[in-house]
Amino acid sequence: MTTPTPKRIAVTGAAGQICYALLFRIAKNDVYGPDQPVILQLLDLPQAQDAVRGVVMELEDCAFPLLVDTIITDDPATAFRDADAAFFVGSRPRSKGMERRDLLSANAEIFRAQGRALNEAAKREAKVVVVGNPANTNAMILAANAPDFPTENVTSMIRLDHNRALTQLAAKAGVAVDSIDRLAVWGNHSPTMFADWTNATSQDDSLSDMIGDDAWYRETLIPNVARRGISIIEARGASSTASAANAAIGHMHDWINGSDGKWGSMGVHSNGEYDIPAGLMFGVPVICTDGRYERVEGLTFNDFQREMMARTIAELQEEREAVAALL
Ligand code: NAD
Ligand code: LMR
């Protein structure tokens, strides 16, 4: 049997907390699946290069059979060179006293520079997921600064919110997590996100009928999912790490290998579907098949859904205005 050509996987923020969980799962090959060798191309800031070297020593000490090489760099173009997939995890964290607008601008500069490097160096078919916050707007800036790179291949992560909603709904309904389908998380990865159970089913039965408690859905489920990231920061003094890495793996795994006809949620470039303003990077339900995602089409919205959509659209439009100069 011939060995497949290794896939090159670029990861930014390699010295950070999420990557300390993510890199080991990629190296074990939870993304492409068994028998596919991988090369990790790790980017972090100059001052973090020693820390990345330490992580790579640990990767080596795992003796992963499918990890055939590791590149460590502080140069984005080197990290993205010929990449088949890229996880954009690195970003500037919010520091004390920093306004959201300042955070947006600081990260916008990073994603503008990285967009240019992606444009120059990555394979055109590379699959990109942005995890670093504010993930949707960072992804929008990345795509805008990579004009020769297919916009469809730049996505942002809302999978963690999808997973959070799945677990909370399964517990309430008393069903298995993996029995649930047709859940959607719309919009921004922020407290305005909209976890939408309207079409959700468990074994083809309507989940909202099974739970039968609209007040719980509106007043508990939606805010709990939306605030889960903040609850984790309050409880552990740091933002989610292993669950964020797990969501990034799930996002990329399904995009590459397919989702068996099941709905997932991905932040994708809007072409104006469902009156979502064109150009926003927006969480929508998708089905993945053969290395492609397809937006779920033909859904209709009630007044409550329209109100929730309008809220998260307005926030993303504000974010877009704050970084307009970089687009
Ligand atoms: P972290 O601070 O531990 O690590 C970030 C890493 O990025 C650091 O090693 C830093 O040196 C690096 N970095 C900063 N600027 C860089 C640049 N220009 N190029 C390359 N690397 C750079 O943070 P973390 O806990 O790993 O989280 C990373 C990001 O993911 C944060 O923005 C966090 O808010 C976000 N996050 C997103 C989700 C989501 O669901 N989308 C969930 C959890 C966390
Ligand atoms: C999360 O959802 O856990 C994170 O995005 C929270 C954060 O602000 O880092």
Automatic annotation (TrEMBL):
Residues 8-148 form the Lactate/malate dehydrogenase N-terminal domain. Keywords: NAD, Oxidoreductase, Tricarboxylic acid cycle. Its EC number is 1.1.1.37. PANTHER family: MALATE DEHYDROGENASE. The active site is at H189. It holds the Pfam family Ldh_1_C. Substrate binds at R94, R100, N133, R164. Catalyzes the reversible oxidation of malate to oxaloacetate. GO terms for molecular function: L-malate dehydrogenase (NAD+) activity. Residues 159-325 form the Lactate/malate dehydrogenase C-terminal domain. It catalyses: (S)-malate + NAD(+) = oxaloacetate + NADH + H(+). Belongs to the LDH/MDH superfamily. MDH type 2 family. It is an enzyme of class 1 (oxidoreductase). InterPro entries: L-lactate/malate_DH, Lactate/malate_DH_C, Lactate/malate_DH_N, Lactate_DH/Glyco_Ohase_4_C, Malate_DH_type2, NAD(P)-bd_dom_sf. GO terms for biological process: malate metabolic process; tricarboxylic acid cycle. This is Malate dehydrogenase. NCBIfam families: MalateDH-SF1 (TIGR01759), PRK05442.1 (NF003916). It comes from Paracoccus subflavus. The gene is mdh. Gene3D superfamilies: Lactate dehydrogenase/glycoside hydrolase, family 4, C-terminal, NAD(P)-binding Rossmann-like Domain. NAD(+) binds at G13, A14, A15, G16, Q17, I18, C19, D44, N107, Q114, V131, G132, N133. The keyword Transmembrane does not apply.
